[in-house]
Amino acid sequence: MTLKSIELIGFKSFGKKSPLSFSTPITCIVGPNGSGKSNIVEAIRFVLGEQSMKSLRGKGGVDLIFKGSKNLSTSNRASVIITFDNSQKIFSFTNSGIGVSLDYDEVTIGREVFTDGANRYLINGTEVRLKDVVDLLASVNIGSTGHHIISQGEADRVLNASNKDRRSMIEDALGLKIYQYRIKESERKLDKTVLNMKEVQMLRREIAPHLSFLKKQVEKVEKARSLREDLRNLYKIYLGNESTYINSEGARINSLRLELDKKALSIDEKINGLEKEKNGNSIESENIKIIKEKESNLSGLRGKRDELARSLGRMEGIIEGIERQYSKIRDVKERIIKESEWKSLVEDLESKIDEAINFEDLESVKGILKNIKEKLGLFLHHGMDSEAELPKIEDNAEYLEMCKAKENIIGEISQVKIEEGNILNAINELKAKEQESQSVLRDNERVYYELLSNRNEVSSSLHSLSFEEEKLAAIKTNFEMELAEGGAIIGREVIDFAKIKIEEEIVRSTQEEIRRKIERIKIKLEDSGSGGDATSITKEYDETVERDTFLGRELEDLNKSIESLHTLIEELKETLDKEFKEGVDKINKQFQEFFALMFGGGSASLSITMEYKKVRKDDEIVSEEDMEDDEEEEEEVATDESNQEFERGIEINVNLPHKKVKDLHMLSGGERSLTSIALLFAVSQVNPPPFLVLDETDAALDEANSRKYGDMLLNLSKYSQLIVVTHNRETMSRAQVLYGVTMSSEGASKLLSIHLEDASVYAK
Fold first, then answer.
1. DSSP alpha helices (H): ranges in 115-176?
2. pLDDT at 620 over 50
3. What pLDDT shows up at residue 29?
4. pLDDT in tens, 549-560
5. pLDDT at 401 > cutoff 80
6. Closest by CA position to 77, among listed 35, 122, 126
7. Residue 703 belongs to what H/E stretch?
8. Which of 58, 108, 123, 175 is deepest in the core (most CB within 10 A)?
């Protein structure tokens, strides 16, 4: 994998589109101070996802956008696009759900920043997240610490860093960050698993009381089954007896009613005969005549009132029909044409036809006919497109007439009712006077009253019989309710119990005793809480037991997961530790060679340090049985080595030739630069990054050391592609391509490129 090109658009001092191609092992970027050559290095940092504005020499995203000049306008965004060779298809994502295809010979990464500070990231032209860019670069050993980009003044960073930070740089350079990521991911999974385990334990605690409750309910269900069996046996006796009693008692009452009705009919016939004889032999008094006359008038008024009521009903029906028609008139599809419209059309057509009759010229007649045709078309089109005015119910004469007639009838009915009341009062007064005037009873009146007495006795018997019917109806209602309740509790077989016929006499007291037993059992069933819902309770109990068992298995699986994650973390740490030590050994070998080359002798090495620190003992995962005893036991605080952790660091040891200087702080500026360069080159040669950007790391070197620096560049270029920003001629001589950066007359950075062979020709 090689870096092929980078393109800057509106980035810092590059106001115009500025492409750079990297097709050789060493490419140098040169130019005077302030020309913007370091902006190219910062553009590489920017497009690879750098988030520190300090590293990009700015306070915010807007500082990265070209500010404009006298001849060039301000850019609205800064954009950098970097292209990598992917012919070997080594780029990849750890997450397969990103939706970007990498099956190309080139992979491009783009980043844009806008004036509002918003950033946009692109991979092969598809917008992605910063996380996806970091993920992609990690697959080709381009880490987040930026060990592959050494800017001016940062070469000394590895010397000034703490042992812990230095270790992180070395791990990143050795490509061991993947283990750190896996360890952190495993620890996150471990934390999540512990959390899930606590949730499962909490669920089991929540289920436990409900499970205990359901167990008691199931016991009640079993008891309820026994009660239902007893209830079934009692129902079989009770319902058969009750059904038989209701049928036999109903037949007896019906027979007795027929007999009493027949006797009452005979007495009524005799009474009617006596009343007719009495009326025939007696002379109607004046009061009786007046009463009959008024009763006749009353009958007429009632007939008139009934007729008025029928008329009122008809009126209301007509009114309702008209209202219904008008409520549906908007649903009528056909247009209602006004009389004025069609009359106007007819008159116009008649006039045109008369004109045609008077003309003898055929062409004139045809013109008139065409005019008639157009008017008909306009009339038809107007009829289809325009919406006719809908008639209103208030304009309907029949409706208004019916409403008025209705009000009149209601008034007449009220007047008739008043007249009826007056006549009734008069009749009652006349009857009272007539009763007072009758003082003598004839012999047949004695018989008449005896018959009335007999009739009262029959009525009394019928009345008593009605009580018996009501009592039987109540018994029947209770029977039907009991049948329904029994069906709900026992099932449909209670219907068969009701069909059983009993031959012996039914004793009501025995039935009542059986019913009381039935009620007691139903109360016990209700108290048991089963209430005929035994199936659902048993089902819920079985489901809850199954749920509890599942959670128990889940708890076991989580315990196993925790153990396996602990094992995995330990294995990853051991692998990281092993490969880290091996990497440090390899770096030491190269570091010694480069250091001796730079200083003409001496020794240099990296050593691994251990820094101990006290940490709080983590909460342990305990079993469910241990959890029950947690409240009674006190947590012991770990002491000595049990609550200690250590972190590995990297310490740099140097021994200059002909000097007794071993402390880094005692080195001069040049010595520090040489030491840092030797270490950086050693790390890069042990685990070469795809490309290495060096921004004026040779600025402090003299001519002799510059040649050594150039020799190391040639050696390093065999393993990594080098992009070098320099002022040093010795360094330039080792490059195959030179890019010159100047500040153009337009006020923006401008690029010039030349191959070294061409430069040699120009130099001659």
1. 130-138, 157-160, 163-173
2. no
3. 93
4. 888 888 888 898
5. yes
6. 122
7. helix 703-716
8. 123
Structure tokens at 598: 């730079």
Give Cβ neighbours of residue 6 (< 8 Å, ≥ 6 apart).
19, 20, 22, 40, 43, 44, 47, 80, 81, 82, 83
Amino acid at 177: K
Q: Of 406, 412, 404, 425, which Cα lies nearest the Cα of 305?
A: 412
Q: Measure the CA–CA gap between 226 and 614, rounded to whole angstroms.
A: 67
H and E: helices and strands count for the chain: 18, 14
In this structure, of 225-239, 465-479, 493-507, the range with the lowest mean pLDDT score is: 493-507
User: CA-CA distance, 324 to 2, in Å (whole number)?
Assistant: 87
Cα 638 to Cα 641: distance, rounded to the nearest angstrom = 8
| Tokens 């606590």 found at | 198
**What integer pLDDT is reported at residue 336 of this predicted model?**
59
Using alpha carbons only, give the angle 542, 546, 549 rounded to the nearest 5 degrees: 140
Mean pLDDT of the chain: 79
On the 0-12 / 13-18 / 19+ scale of CB atoms within 10 A, 699 is middle
- Entry field: residues in the chain: 764
Name the burial class of residue 37, with classes exposed (0-12), middle (13-18) and buried (19+) by CB atoms within 10 angstroms of its CB.
buried
Residue 99 gets the label, from left (phi > 0), alpha (psi -120 to 50) or beta, of left
Which of 167, 240, 323 has its CA nearest to residue 652?
167
Provide the edge-to-edge strand list for the sheet that holds 749-755.
149-150, 691-695, 721-725, 26-30, 737-743, 749-755
8 A C-beta contact, residue 205 and residue 548:
no
CB within 8 A of 504, min separation 6: which ones? none
Measured CA distances, 443 to 365, 448, 449, 450, 456 (Å):
111, 9, 10, 11, 20
Q: Are 8 and 77 in contact (CB under 8 A)?
A: no
User: Is 238 in contact with 500 (CB distance < 8 Å)?
Assistant: no
The label of the residue with tokens 């094992």 reads 567
CB 558 within 8 A of CB 172: no
Of 243, 407, 385, the residue nearest 312 (C-alpha)? 407
Give mean pLDDT, residues 726-746: 88
Do 224 and 526 meet the contact criterion of CB atoms below 8 Å apart? Answer: no
C-alpha 468/C-alpha 272 separation (Å) is 30
Q: What is the distance between the alpha carbons of residues 243 and 251, in angstroms, rounded to a whole number?
A: 12
3-state secondary structure of 753: strand
- Give the Cα separation of 628 and 197 in Å (integer): 16
